[in-house]
Design brief:
The complex is a heterodimer of chains A (77) and B (361). With 77 residues, chain A is of the alpha+beta class. Helices cover 16% and strands 27% of the residues of chain A. In chain A, strand 2 and strand 3 (23-27) form a beta hairpin. Chain A is globular. With 361 residues, chain B is α/β, with parallel strands linked by helices. In chain B, 36% of the residues lie in helices and 12% in strands. Chain B has 15 helices and nine strands. Chain B has helices at residues 3-7, 39-45, 51-64, 82-91, 107-116, 133-140, 144-157, 177-186, 202-209, 213-225, 287-293, 295-302, 314-317, 322-329, 340-344, and strands at residues 15-19, 68-72, 95-100, 122-127, 163-169, 190-195, 257-260, 265-267, 280-281. In chain B, strands 6-5-4-3-2-1-7-8-9 form a nine-stranded mixed sheet, with helices on one face. In chain B, a hairpin with a 4-residue loop joins strand 7 and strand 8. Chain B is globular. The chains are: A alpha+beta (77), B alpha/beta (361). Chain A binds chain B through residues 4, 6, 8-12, 15, 17, 19-20, 22, 24, 26, 37-39, and chain B through 1-2, 5, 8, 10-12, 14, 62, 65, 67-68, 91-95, 120-121, 123.
C-alpha cells in the first residue's frame, strides 16, 4: 500500500483515504479484504483466508484500486 | 460519495475538529470560538486538556483509525506543546490540518512544519478575510492583513506543499471572492471559502455580516463556475448541481466528523458547541463510546428534515446546515433558512428577519 494511503474497515467493506487529496473511496468488499495498520514498515492489504481462489469481481476491484493509486501491485510471494 | 453510505454511521469519524486552545492573539468579529474565551465561559468549561490528556486522545484516535485531525482554536500555535502534539499525531499515521491566523508563523516554525512532512502531511489553512487590508482589517483587526500576508509570503517562499487561504464569506468581503482567489493563486495557495454561521461571535455580527439574498445567489453561481475553490463542505446547501459530485451532499456532523473543545467536551460539529449538543468529555469517557452511543450523536444521526423531503434539491443537501437552522430557528429539524431553494424562492429575504438565538431555553 502506498505510504500516502490509509484504509480502515467499515461495515460495508473498506474506506480508503488518500492523504494527498483527502479524498475518500468507499469499497464494498465485505469481509474479503483485511486492511493493514496506519503505520508500519510494510503495509499490505490481505485477502481473507477463505478467498483462496480470487473471484473475478475481487480481482477487478483490486485492479481498480491499483488504477486509482490506492494500491500498488506487487508480485506474488 | 454515495449518499446511502455517507448517511449511515461509520465506525469512527473520518476527521475530527479539535479546538486545541482557547488562547488567541486576535479578536475577529465573526469568530465562532470567541464566546468560549469569555472569562465566565473559560471558568465554567474548566482548563484545557494537558499534554498527557491530548496524547491519550490521540492514542484513541489512532486506535479508532481517524484519518485526519483539523486543529483550530483559538490560535493553535500559541499553545506551547502544540508542535509536540502534531508530531505525536503524525507518529500514529494521522494526517493533520492546522487552521491558523498566520501571525505567529516565522521561519523557524515553518521549517519545523516542513520537516514534519517527512512523517505525515500537515495541511495549513491561513485565515484571511478579504483581498485587501481595508476589508480584512475591519473583520480581523487593524494591521492584521499585513501581518498575515507576511506569513503567506514566507510560506510561499518556502514552497509550503499544501497551503490554503481561508475566507469566511461575509457581506463586507463577498464582493472580493474573485480577487481573493487571484491573491491566493499568486502565492501558490488554494482558496478555501467558509460559510459564516450565526454561532459564537457570529451571533452578534449576524445582522451586519450575513449575506443578502442577492449575494447568496451570486456566491452560488461563483462556486459553480469555480470548481477549484475549496469549501470544506461549507456550502453544500447553496452550491449548484455542477458541484454535485464534489464532497458531501449532506451534513456530516456525528456521522463522519465531530468536534472536541479545548477542555475535552465533544460536540457533533465545531459550529454546534452549544450546551444542547454536549455529548460527553474525552477526559472522562472514551471518544469511541461517545461517537457510537451518546444520545446526542444518536439523535443527530437519526434526524431528518422532513419539510425538505419534497424538494427537488433534497438529494443534494438533505436540509442544509443544522447549525444554521438551530441558531436561527432553534431547531435542527428545520430547513436551513439559507439553502438555495429557500433563497431562490424568497424575494422577501426571509433570513434577514431571523435573528440568532444566543441561549438555549
Amino acid at each position: 500500500m502506498p505510504a500516502w494511503v490509509r484504509v480502515r474497515r467499515e461495515d460495508f467493506g473498506l474506506l480508503f483515504y488518500d492523504t494527498r487529496s483527502t479524498r475518500l473511496t468507499y469499497v464494498r468488499s465485505g469481509e474479503s479484504l483485511t486492511p493493514p495498520p496506519f503505520v508500519g514498515a510494510r503495509r499490505t492489504l490481505a485477502v481473507e483466508a477463505g478467498e483462496t481462489q480470487l473471484s473475478t469481481a475481487l480481482l477487478r476491484l483490486l485492479d481498480d484500486l491499483v488504477a486509482k493509486g490506492l494500491l500498488v501491485a506487487s508480485p506474488a510471494e | 460519495m454515495p449518499a446511502r453510505l455517507s448517511s449511515s454511521a461509520l465506525r469512527a469519524p473520518v476527521n475530527l475538529t479539535w479546538e486545541i486552545t482557547d488562547a488567541c492573539n486576535l479578536s475577529c468579529s465573526h469568530c465562532l470560538s470567541a464566546a468560549l474565551r469569555e472569562p465566565a465561559a473559560v471558568a465554567a468549561a474548566g482548563r484545557e486538556l494537558d499534554f498527557d490528556q491530548c496524547r491519550a486522545l490521540l492514542d484513541e484516535l489512532g486506535a479508532m483509525q481517524v484519518f485526519q485531525v483539523n486543529f483550530g482554536g483559538g490560535e493553535p500555535f500559541l499553545r506551547d506543546d502544540f508542535l509536540e502534539i502534531l508530531r505525536y499525531a503524525h507518529s500514529l499515521g494521522i494526517t493533520t490540518c492546522v487552521s491558523t491566523n498566520g501571525t505567529v508563523l516565522d521561519e523557524t516554525l515553518v521549517d519545523e512544519l516542513l520537516r514534519m512532512w517527512q512523517t505525515a502531511p500537515v495541511y495549513l489553512q491561513v485565515s484571511l478575510d478579504g483581498a485587501c487590508a481595508e476589508t480584512n482589517d475591519t473583520i480581523r483587526g487593524r494591521g492584521t492583513f499585513a501581518r498575515i500576508m507576511d506569513a503567506v509570503e514566507l510560506l510561499s517562499r518556502r514552497r509550503y506543499p499544501e497551503l490554503s487561504l481561508n475566507m469566511v464569506v461575509t457581506r463586507p468581503n463577498v464582493g472580493e471572492v474573485g480577487d481573493f482567489a487571484a491573491l491566493a493563486r499568486r502565492f501558490g495557495a488554494k482558496t478555501r471559502l467558509s460559510r459564516f454561521r450565526p454561532s459564537g461571535a457570529g451571533c452578534s455580527s449576524w445582522e451586519d455580516y450575513r449575506l443578502t439574498r442577492g449575494q447568496l445567489l451570486g456566491l452560488s453561481g461563483f462556486l459553480g463556475d469555480h470548481p477549484e475553490i475549496l469549501t470544506g463542505d461549507s456550502f453544500f446547501s447553496l452550491t449548484p448541481d455542477t458541484r454535485r459530485t464534489m464532497g458531501l451532499r449532506m451534513c456530516g456532523a456525528a456521522k463522519m466528523t465531530c468536534a472536541v473543545a479545548p477542555n475535552g467536551d465533544v460536540y457533533p460539529c465545531a459550529f454546534l458547541c452549544d450546551p444542547a449538543f454536549l455529548a460527553g468529555n474525552v477526559a472522562r469517557e472514551r471518544l469511541s463510546d461517545i461517537f457510537r452511543d451518546s444520545p446526542v450523536f444518536c439523535r443527530f444521526r437519526e434526524a431528518e428534515v422532513e419539510s425538505c423531503r419534497g424538494c427537488d434539491r433534497f438529494s443534494v443537501c438533505h436540509g442544509g446546515c443544522p447549525a444554521v437552522a438551530y441558531f436561527l430557528t432553534r431547531s435542527t429539524g428545520n430547513a436551513d433558512p439559507e439553502c438555495l431553494r429557500a433563497v431562490d424562492s424568497n424575494p422577501a429575504d426571509e433570513a434577514a428577519r431571523q435573528q440568532p438565538h444566543k441561549e438555549v431555553d
